[in-house]
Amino acid sequence: MDKNYIPDVPLSFNQAFEVFCEGRSGAGPIWDHILQYWNESLRRPDKFLFLKYEEMMAEPHQNLRKLAEFIRCPFSEEEEKTGVIEQIIELCSLKKLKELDVNKKGEGFSNIENEIFFRKGVVGDWKNNMTPEMAERLDELTREKLHGCGLTFSSKEQRQPS
To answer: What is the pTM of this model?
Structure first.
Protein backbone atom coordinates (compact mmCIF):
# COMPACT_ATOMS: atom_id res chain seq x y z
CA MET A 1 0.00 0.00 0.00
CA ASP A 2 1.17 3.52 -0.82
CA LYS A 3 2.61 5.14 2.32
CA ASN A 4 0.78 8.37 1.43
CA TYR A 5 -2.55 6.59 1.00
CA ILE A 6 -5.42 8.33 2.74
CA PRO A 7 -8.88 6.76 2.65
CA ASP A 8 -11.32 8.71 0.45
CA VAL A 9 -13.73 9.18 3.33
CA PRO A 10 -14.08 11.99 5.83
CA LEU A 11 -11.65 11.59 8.72
CA SER A 12 -12.28 12.50 12.32
CA PHE A 13 -9.97 15.13 13.81
CA ASN A 14 -8.04 12.40 15.65
CA GLN A 15 -7.65 10.36 12.47
CA ALA A 16 -6.55 13.42 10.49
CA PHE A 17 -4.04 14.25 13.24
CA GLU A 18 -2.54 10.75 12.99
CA VAL A 19 -2.34 10.94 9.20
CA PHE A 20 -0.64 14.35 9.49
CA CYS A 21 1.88 13.16 12.11
CA GLU A 22 2.70 10.12 10.00
CA GLY A 23 3.49 12.42 7.07
CA ARG A 24 0.78 11.00 4.87
CA SER A 25 -0.99 13.29 2.46
CA GLY A 26 -1.67 13.49 -1.22
CA ALA A 27 1.23 15.94 -1.50
CA GLY A 28 3.59 14.06 0.81
CA PRO A 29 4.96 15.00 4.22
CA ILE A 30 4.48 18.68 5.05
CA TRP A 31 7.90 18.81 6.71
CA ASP A 32 9.58 18.17 3.36
CA HIS A 33 7.71 21.10 1.83
CA ILE A 34 8.49 23.44 4.71
CA LEU A 35 12.18 22.59 4.57
CA GLN A 36 12.35 22.94 0.80
CA TYR A 37 10.78 26.39 0.87
CA TRP A 38 12.79 27.47 3.92
CA ASN A 39 16.06 26.38 2.32
CA GLU A 40 15.19 28.07 -0.96
CA SER A 41 14.31 31.27 0.90
CA LEU A 42 17.82 31.21 2.36
CA ARG A 43 19.50 30.29 -0.90
CA ARG A 44 17.49 32.63 -3.12
CA PRO A 45 15.88 35.33 -0.97
CA ASP A 46 15.02 37.33 -4.09
CA LYS A 47 12.83 34.45 -5.33
CA PHE A 48 11.33 32.95 -2.15
CA LEU A 49 9.72 34.87 0.70
CA PHE A 50 9.09 32.81 3.82
CA LEU A 51 6.38 34.27 6.06
CA LYS A 52 4.97 32.88 9.29
CA TYR A 53 1.26 33.11 10.01
CA GLU A 54 1.76 34.21 13.60
CA GLU A 55 4.04 37.05 12.51
CA MET A 56 1.62 38.13 9.79
CA MET A 57 -1.21 38.23 12.31
CA ALA A 58 0.88 40.10 14.89
CA GLU A 59 2.21 42.71 12.44
CA PRO A 60 0.03 42.75 9.32
CA HIS A 61 1.14 46.21 8.11
CA GLN A 62 4.84 45.38 8.35
CA ASN A 63 4.39 42.02 6.63
CA LEU A 64 2.27 43.49 3.84
CA ARG A 65 4.97 46.09 3.20
CA LYS A 66 7.55 43.28 3.17
CA LEU A 67 5.47 41.33 0.65
CA ALA A 68 4.95 44.40 -1.55
CA GLU A 69 8.68 45.09 -1.59
CA PHE A 70 9.38 41.43 -2.35
CA ILE A 71 7.19 41.52 -5.46
CA ARG A 72 8.78 44.86 -6.37
CA CYS A 73 5.58 46.86 -5.87
CA PRO A 74 6.35 48.87 -2.74
CA PHE A 75 3.70 51.24 -1.45
CA SER A 76 4.13 54.91 -2.25
CA GLU A 77 3.86 57.55 0.46
CA GLU A 78 0.53 58.56 -1.04
CA GLU A 79 -0.80 54.99 -0.83
CA GLU A 80 0.32 54.75 2.78
CA LYS A 81 -1.31 58.10 3.64
CA THR A 82 -4.60 57.24 1.94
CA GLY A 83 -5.00 53.91 3.73
CA VAL A 84 -4.28 51.50 0.89
CA ILE A 85 -2.46 49.12 3.24
CA GLU A 86 -5.44 49.03 5.61
CA GLN A 87 -7.79 48.43 2.68
CA ILE A 88 -5.72 45.49 1.44
CA ILE A 89 -5.53 44.01 4.93
CA GLU A 90 -9.32 44.27 5.19
CA LEU A 91 -9.89 42.77 1.72
CA CYS A 92 -7.58 39.86 2.57
CA SER A 93 -9.05 39.31 6.02
CA LEU A 94 -10.37 35.90 6.90
CA LYS A 95 -13.84 37.39 7.29
CA LYS A 96 -13.80 38.71 3.70
CA LEU A 97 -12.29 35.52 2.27
CA LYS A 98 -14.91 33.39 4.02
CA GLU A 99 -17.64 35.51 2.40
CA LEU A 100 -16.49 34.78 -1.17
CA ASP A 101 -18.87 32.42 -2.97
CA VAL A 102 -16.03 30.23 -4.20
CA ASN A 103 -14.96 29.62 -0.60
CA LYS A 104 -18.51 28.95 0.60
CA LYS A 105 -19.59 26.65 -2.22
CA GLY A 106 -16.52 25.55 -4.17
CA GLU A 107 -14.53 22.36 -3.92
CA GLY A 108 -10.80 21.89 -4.20
CA PHE A 109 -8.81 18.70 -4.40
CA SER A 110 -10.24 15.37 -3.21
CA ASN A 111 -13.79 16.76 -3.24
CA ILE A 112 -13.09 18.69 -0.04
CA GLU A 113 -15.30 21.74 0.28
CA ASN A 114 -13.30 24.96 0.33
CA GLU A 115 -15.10 26.29 3.41
CA ILE A 116 -13.40 23.66 5.58
CA PHE A 117 -10.09 25.52 5.13
CA PHE A 118 -11.48 28.61 6.86
CA ARG A 119 -11.74 28.30 10.60
CA LYS A 120 -11.41 31.16 13.08
CA GLY A 121 -8.07 32.55 11.93
CA VAL A 122 -7.03 33.05 15.53
CA VAL A 123 -3.47 32.38 16.64
CA GLY A 124 -3.53 29.77 19.40
CA ASP A 125 -6.98 28.38 18.58
CA TRP A 126 -5.37 24.96 18.30
CA LYS A 127 -5.94 24.69 22.08
CA ASN A 128 -9.66 24.29 21.41
CA ASN A 129 -9.11 21.25 19.20
CA MET A 130 -5.97 19.49 20.40
CA THR A 131 -5.29 17.76 23.67
CA PRO A 132 -2.11 18.70 25.55
CA GLU A 133 -0.71 15.30 24.49
CA MET A 134 -1.40 16.04 20.83
CA ALA A 135 0.25 19.46 21.17
CA GLU A 136 3.34 17.94 22.79
CA ARG A 137 3.55 15.27 20.09
CA LEU A 138 3.33 17.90 17.37
CA ASP A 139 5.91 20.10 19.10
CA GLU A 140 8.31 17.17 19.40
CA LEU A 141 7.75 16.19 15.77
CA THR A 142 8.37 19.80 14.70
CA ARG A 143 11.60 19.97 16.70
CA GLU A 144 12.75 16.66 15.23
CA LYS A 145 11.91 17.47 11.61
CA LEU A 146 13.22 21.05 11.62
CA HIS A 147 16.26 20.49 13.84
CA GLY A 148 19.39 22.21 12.62
CA CYS A 149 17.85 24.03 9.66
CA GLY A 150 17.81 27.46 11.27
CA LEU A 151 14.04 27.85 11.11
CA THR A 152 12.90 29.02 14.52
CA PHE A 153 9.77 30.27 16.15
CA SER A 154 9.69 33.25 18.48
CA SER A 155 8.60 32.87 22.08
CA LYS A 156 5.27 34.49 21.13
CA GLU A 157 4.64 31.57 18.80
CA GLN A 158 5.63 28.84 21.23
CA ARG A 159 2.82 26.72 22.53
CA GLN A 160 1.91 27.32 26.10
CA PRO A 161 0.32 24.54 28.13
CA SER A 162 -3.43 24.92 28.62
So the answer is: 0.76
